[in-house]
Amino acid sequence: MSPAYRHRPRGMALIELALVLAILAVTGALAWSLLAQMRPTLEQGRIGEQLDQAALALQGFALVHHRLPCPDLSGDGRQGDGDGVCPADVDQGGLPWRDLGLSRLLQVRYGVHRSGASGQADLVQARERYTPALPTGILPLTPLIDGMDFCVALGNALVGSGSGLADGVAAAFVLAYPGAGDGDGFDQPAGFSLPGAPASATADIVRAVGPGELAARLECPYRRGQIDGAARALAAATDLVAHGDQYVGFRQLAYDIREMNVRLAEATLELAIADQVIALAVSASGIALAAVSGGVGAAAQAAAAAAVAAAAGALIAAGIALHGANSELTAAGNLRNQAIAYRDQARQVRLRAQLRLQTQHGAGLRP
């Protein structure tokens, strides 16, 4: 082996090492710059997830309590002021994270729809607003406050003319967190910006749920349809019972007429029997007269025999009429019993419909 090969340098030259270090430095600087740019986005994503969790907690609160919570006015994570009182004119404040079962969420502003005449659209106030329409003669349902009353309040908030929480737009509730660069303050000292507003207008992170959207999440239309359907089924069953009562009354009248016919046929038969007895007595008198007077009594005897025959025919006809009247009475009784059975079935259907309505109404928004 020649000396030239024995002394060839091994490893990386200094210029190559410097080039690698330069590339690593540039790459690190670019990565650090990109990370600094992504940090606000990542922070906004984390805060957005917390606001989404808070929105789900508010939805669960509405399912359980049939209303939305009052804003936190004392900063303790509870509803209302320090004494738990929620003034009727307060629709904004802190998020009552303790009452929602959440971990502590600082700087989250919470707004809830409170406006509406007579409190019919006040989403913080739980009150009876919904009663299914019931047929006449049905005892009213036991008054209760459930999720359907809250659904009615959402509907009132949707069509009402109350002030909007998010830039004038009606919302069931709004959550806001000051965005990056805002420090501890909000871009809007009062009220809320619309979610997704341009960054030039606001940097706040906002989550808003409208009355219609919240009603859909709670399946208010489906539950309302179930209860109203049960009420209509009860109304139809009540009509069936009314028709059954009329049918029974009609069949009872027909039965009473047939019973009167039987009484008339019995009276006719009794008269025919009396006529037969009289005819027999007259015939006996004619026979006795014929035995005493000869030819004169023969004519009376013939007339008496004819009367006996006529009475016998009337007796037979009365018997046949009585049999027919009894058959018609039996048939009328069977039809009357069928009408009573139909009415009783209708009453059972009405009872089941009433129990179903009570169950649906009592279930409220429970899944």
What does this structure look like?
This protein is mainly alpha-helical and 367 residues long. The protein has two domains: 40-218, no CATH class; 231-363, Orthogonal Bundle (Helix Hairpins), CATH 1.10.287. Helices cover 60% and strands 5% of the residues. The protein has six helices and four strands; from the N terminus they run ααββαββααα. The protein has helices spanning 3-6, 14-65, 147-159, 211-217, 220-293, 295-363, and strands at 92-94, 109-112, 173-177, 205-209. Helix 3 (147-159) runs antiparallel to helix 4 (211-217) and helix 5 packs antiparallel against helix 6. The radius of gyration is 48 Å and the shape is rod-shaped. The two termini are 89 Å apart. The mean pLDDT is 79.
Structural features:
four-stranded antiparallel β-sheet, Helix Hairpins, 2 domains, 367 residues, 60% helix, 6 helices, mainly alpha
Content of β-strand:
under 5%
Multimerization status: single chain
Radius of gyration, in angstroms, nearest whole number: 48 Å
Helix content: 55-70%
Count of the domains? 2
Output the number of helix runs. Answer: 6
Along the chain, the helix and strand elements come as HHEEHEEHHH
Please count the beta strands (DSSP E, at least 2 residues each). Answer: 4
From the spread of the alpha carbons, the general shape counts as: rod-shaped
The termini sit apart by 89 Å
Task: Quote the average pLDDT.
Answer: 79
Secondary-structure-derived class: mainly alpha
Strand order of the largest sheet: 1-2-3-4
The major β-sheet equals: 4 strands, antiparallel
Low-pLDDT runs of 5+ residues are none
